[in-house]
Please model this.
Amino acid sequence: MKNVFIKKKKKFEVSLLKLKNITQEYISSLKSSNFIINPNYTIKDQKNYIRKIRKAKNVMLEITHKKKIVATSGFEKNKKGKIFQGILIIDKKFRKKGFAKFFIFQSLLYFNRLKGINIFYAGIDKNNLSSIHAFKKAGYKLQNKKSNDFKINLKNYLN
Model:
């Protein structure tokens, strides 16, 4: 299953992350975004991480443009059963241009169709102002000031 959408005359597809699409550029982006601190982290390490995510029944999506991953979005269930979303814009050409909110929302729609879930959360570091801005633009609302958790209910956006 995939979801296709167009933004600024560019065609994007959202689908489950394919291990074959994890490239060195993908790993370099994770490192430069401080998602990974270990300088020796490899493609094999990331593929093993994705396998663990799948085994735990969590979901990792890829957003592609011209068959190249430009962003990923992960959905993880915490111990209380809440589904948290995260996103990483891998291709720097798509950063700070308004794409993040569309990637966030399109990933939500895909996950909703996949699992039938409407309520999602995002825990965002208070210093990550660009992520806070993107999640708010996508429809998330601040739920808990202390933990800086945001929440969205897709029922408010779907017919």
Observations:
- The chain has a mean pLDDT of 87.
